[in-house]
Amino acid sequence: MKIYNTLTQSKQEFEPLEQKKVKMYVCGPTVYNFIHIGNARPMVVFDTVRRYFEYKGYQVNYVSNFTDVDDKIIKRAIEEGVDADTIAKRYIEECKKDMEGLHVRPATKHPLATEEIDGMLEMIQSLIQKGYAYVAFDGTVYYRTRKFQGYGKLSHKNIDDLQAGHREIKVTGSDGKEDELDFVLWKPKKDNEPYWTSPWCDGRPGWHIECSVMAKKYLGEEIDIHAGGEDLIFPHHENEIAQSEACNGKPFARYWMHNAFLNIDNKKMSKSAGNFFTVREISEKVDLQVIRFFMLSAHYRSPLNFSAELVEASKNGLERILTSVEHLNHLLKNGQEGTVTEKEKEHLIRAEEFVKKYEAAMEDDFNTADAVSALFELVKYSNSNASGENTKEYLQGLKDKILILCEILGIEAEKEPDSLDEKVEALIAERTQAKKVKDFARADAIRSQLLEMGIELKDTREGVQWKKR
Ligand code: AMP
Ligand code: ZN
Question: Can you give the pTM of this predicted structure?
Answer without folding.
Answer: 0.89
